[in-house]
Amino acid sequence: MKLSAIVSHILLLFSFLTPVLVFSQTNVKVSCPEAAQYYAKDSINIVTFGASTVEGVKGLGFQTMLESNFTNCYTGKVINITNQGIGGQTTLQGLLRIDKAIKDRTGFIVIDMGINDALSIAAGRGSVAETESNMRLLITTSLKQNLVPIICTLQNVDDRTNTSLVAVNTTIRQINAVYRRLVTEYKLYLADVNAAMRRDFSLYQDPYHPNARGYRLISYVIFDAINKAIFDKFLLFVVSQNYPNPASTQTSIDIVLPEADKINVQIYDLMGRLAKTVVNEYFNTGKHTLEINTTTFVPGIYFFKISSDSGRFNAVKKFIVAK
Question: Pick from 1, 14, 185, 276: most CB atoms within 10 A?
């Protein structure tokens, strides 16, 4: 076979393979958190608020990817994400429209804003202190609306060939330090975009904005931060059926708590007699797995009784011991 024919054959083969590779890359599914199984509400509502990174650039943005992440994991839930990004705006300009942007909204607000502040500060206009004051007002306004704020750190700008942007990155570091402090102070949630993107400028389409890969990474970072908030604030109270059931020598039961409480788990036989106290202590928010030794149990039908000191969490589960 001639060389030209071989090359043509390889190119033809590659033309069939390429769509498969692209298809697999564009349908990557995120790893779903346990919080998705126990989310207590029917919908997830998210306001994304900021400047050009939020608005999207040249047809790219993170909202569609973020919606896909939630749709894939939170099956049966209504996902509603609004885009309140306006390119070129500072945090001060954001303050002028925050009330309208969050009017009648519930759920979460993702605030990703401050790079334009850094550009202005580096040019001699404004200060980090003013940006902090603006961000405080954005946060408190959101909290008054009963939204859960997710604060994004700012990605670096590409200063490799533009020395004027070195000072901008210095200011971005200062602003990010402020944002991290505010997250701690107000007990909020941090989407650490800067830590994820680092200085990997292959994730950028220009000196300031992410490309498709960069936006996908941002969608994952925000997804993780919102899931952390859901885990802390919006879980159902769930008691699983024990497993295995019937039990022989050991069985386990899962308890999901939406808030910290003292939990008492006792086992009774069919006659209502106490067979075992499994636990009587404080548990934190989240999922807990209790392992119970049943080697001393007489074969028969038993009941788990789960109660809490607050009186808010109660459940009864029947199970069988068989030898």
Answer: 276
